[in-house]
Amino acid sequence: MPADFISVGWLQVGYAAGFVLVALVLSRLLRLGVEGDIIVGGVRAFAQLVFLGFILDVVFDVQNPWVTTLVFLAMIIAGAANAYLIDTPRRPSTFWLFAAVLTIVFVGVTLPIGKWILAAKPWYQPQYIIPFGGMLIGNSVTAGLLVQRNLGKLLHDNLAVVETKLSLGASARIAAQPAVVEAVRTGMVPTITSLLMVGLVHIPGIFGGQVLAGLPAIEAAKYQIVVMYMLTAGATLTAIGVAFARVRGFFTPRHQIRCEELARLR
Amino acid sequence: MNTAILRAENLRVTATHPDKSGDTATVLLDDISFVLRRGEILGLAGQSGCGKSTLMRVLCRLLEPDSGRVWFSGQDWSDIDILEYRRRVCLLPQIPVALPGSVEDNLRYVFDLHRDLTPPADMVVLLDKVRLPRDFMANEAVSLSVGEKQRLALARALALRPQVLLLDEPTSALDPENAEHVTDLISEVCHIEKLSAVLTSHIQQHLRITDRILQMDKGRLESIAR
Questions:
Q1: Is this prediction's ipTM beyond 0.90?
Q2: A167–B63: do the CB atoms touch at under 8 Å?
Q3: What is the number of structural domains in chain A?
Q4: Are the beta carbons of A168 and B64 separated by less than 8 Å?
Q5: For residues B110 and B159, what is the distance between their CA atoms, to the nearest angstrom?
Q6: What is the mean pLDDT of each run of 10 residues along chain A (266 residues)?
Q7: Is A32 in a helix, a strand, or coil?
Q8: From the candidates A163, A165, A167, which should be mutated to test the interface with B, based on the most B CB atoms within 10 A?
Q9: Do A23 and A103 sit in the same domain of this protein?
Q10: Considering only CB atoms, which chain A residues are within 8 Å of B60?
Q11: Which residue, A253, A250, A238, is CA-closest to A158?
Q12: A98 and A54 share one domain
C-alpha cells in the first residue's frame, strides 16, 4: 500500500451511509416510491462488496490459477444468473446463453489482455485479471440484455416488413437482418457513449481508484484506456453473440415467424 | 385450364390461447380442401374473421398447418425448397407493405434477393405493368398512398415471375373507385402474365373477375357460391 494512501475506516463508511439517508428522505418527500429499492440496494452493495473484498484478499494471497479460474466461473455464473433474473419474461435459456457468451468473451478478451497486454507474471495474477474480468462481465451482461430485449420488440414492430420479405422468398436471416443490426447497435450504445465521454464528463472507476490509491494519473489513464478497449470488444462480441443466438428462436426452420414467441415478449 | 396448379388437402390450423383454465385451442381452419386450376382466378368469399387471411398465409407457407398439405404443380410442397415455393406462390397481404427506400429500391430488392432473376433493362416496365407513373421510381415508397402501395406490391410480386398470386383482400383498404381500378388491374395482369390467383374479399362485387367463388365460414369451406 503506498505511504500516502488514506485508508477508510468502518466508521467513515458508516458516515458515508448518511448520503443514502439523504436519498431516502428526498425519495420520501417527493414520493418517488424508491425507498425500498434504495435500502435493498444499499444493503446489497455493502454486503456484496465486503464479501468480494474478503474473498479477493484470500485469492490474491493464494496466487493459484485454479482458484482464479474458480472465481471467474463464479463471476460468469453470477453474471448469467443476473441476466436471467433481470430479463422479462424470465427464460431459463437466458442463463445458458449468457453463460456461454460470457465464457467466450472472457476467454477471448480478458485472457489475451492478461497474457500479452498487461504481461503480468504469472499471467493469471489475480489482482490484475480479476478486476478486468469483472468489469468485462458486468458491461457485457448490460449489452447482451439490451440486445435481447430490443430484438424481440424490433421484430414485433416490423412484423409486416419481415413477413413481406419472407413472402418474397427471403430467408429468415435476411428478413431479420435490419432488426438484428439495430438491436446490436442498441446494445453497444452505453459502451460507445462511455468511449466518447470518458475523461471529459466522467472519471471512471478504475481511473479514480488508482488515483485514490496514489498512482500517477498518467498510469491510471493507460489502464483506463486498456479497460475501455476491452469493454468495447466485450460488448461487441456479446451483442453479436446474443443477437445471432436469439434471432433463431423467433423463426421456425421453415423460415416462418414464431408469432407466439414475439407476442410473449411484447 | 383444367390441370391443378395448387391442390390443398385437409388443411387444419388451430391456435392456442392461454387463459385461466389453461390453454384453449381455437380452430382457425378446419379441413380445407380445394383445387386451383392453371390460369384460373379463384374467389374466396366470407365475412371478416372467417379464416381467409389465415388460409392465404398457409398457402404461402408463412404459417404451418397442424395437418394437411398442399400440392404445387403435382409436387408435394414439402418436397420443394420453401424459399423457392414462396417465389412461385406469392402473397400480397391485405395491408400493402412498402419496404424502406425508394420505389426502385423496392423493385430491386427482388433481384438482389434472387440473383438468378434477370432484372429488366429498364425497371419502369414493372411500373407500366401496374399502371404506376414512371416518375414514381425515385419516390419514397412509404410515402405512397395505400392504392399506390398496393400497385407497387403487385409490381414487386410480378418481378418474382410467380405462377400463383395469393391476393388477400387487396381492395379492402381502398375507396370504391380505386378498388374498381385495382380489381380490373389484377384481372388484366393475371391474363397477360398467364397467372393463376386466389382472390379473397368480403365484398362480393370485388370478386366479379373470378372464374369460381368458394364460400368460407368459421374456418370451413361451406359451399361453392358460383
A1: yes
A2: no
A3: 2
A4: no
A5: 7
A6: 75 92 94 91 92 89 88 92 88 93 91 83 82 90 93 93 95 96 95 88 80 86 90 94 94 92 73
A7: coil
A8: A167
A9: no
A10: 167
A11: A250
A12: no
